Amino acid sequence: MSEPIPLNLVRLRRSCAECSLQQLCLPAGVDGADMGRLDTVVQRRRPLARGDSLFRLGDPLRAVYVASEGSFKTVVVNASGEEHVLGFHLPGELFGLDAIGSGQHRCEAVALTDASVCELPFSQLSSIASQLPSLQQQLLRVIGQSADRDHDHVDLLSRRQASERIALFVHGLSARYRRIGRPADDFQLPMSRDEIARYLGLVLETVSRGFSRLHDEGVIEVRGRRVRILDEEALEVAASGCGDDQNPQPRRRDRA
């Protein structure tokens, strides 16, 4: 395995415009000397292929990660060998925070696609952040966003209607693409329907029917893994669980 290669943060300004490293490592007000110190922290791992593990259950906390390209899922496997998906991580989103409390990872991170990863060694990051208030504030904000996503997942699983879970998943994914500067109404799903089902606590057939229903009602257009949002208002209504009698009907479409 090759050693991580330090990155030049001057190049990161141009090449990572969509990445949270821009917010995390390049906060406003950091002077040239401090930027040089950050340059010694950010490292790039070798590229990972689809299905490769970035870290595994029980691995010690060494770094937190940002995918500069590609996406990841975090999973746990129960005693019977069944995989449960805990989260999906898009380009520019910080992950690997599950180990901060115990010092060991409580899940496994697997590449959903071919991916490139920037890593921030945690011991060095926390040391430098304590001396740079602007960086520390950015780090805390990104950690807070991750905690918010975990809370949203628990809230999502507590919802009883499968159709609501699916609509909320699509709506939330759209918002996350918008946050990282990518199109929020036309995107490619990096995960399979089966992985979505394992994340939502549903069976594959239910997820497939849910996507088909949203497609037939003209809320979204689905072509394989490509999703286009056609009626954002109707998607918000479906995600909120409001009854049809209190909201306008989405436009129903004919099957081709």
TrEMBL record:
CDD domains: CAP_ED, HTH_CRP. The keyword Transcription applies. The keyword Repressor applies. Residues 26-110 form the Cyclic nucleotide-binding domain. Keywords: Activator, Allosteric enzyme, c-di-GMP, DNA-binding, Repressor, Transcription, Transcription regulation, Virulence. It comes from the Bacteria. It comes from Thermomonas brevis. PROSITE patterns: CNMP_BINDING_3, HTH_CRP_2. One of its GO terms (molecular function) is catalytic activity. This is CRP-like protein Clp. Residues 160-233 form the HTH crp-type domain. GO terms for cellular component: cytosol. It is found in: Cytoplasm. Homodimer.
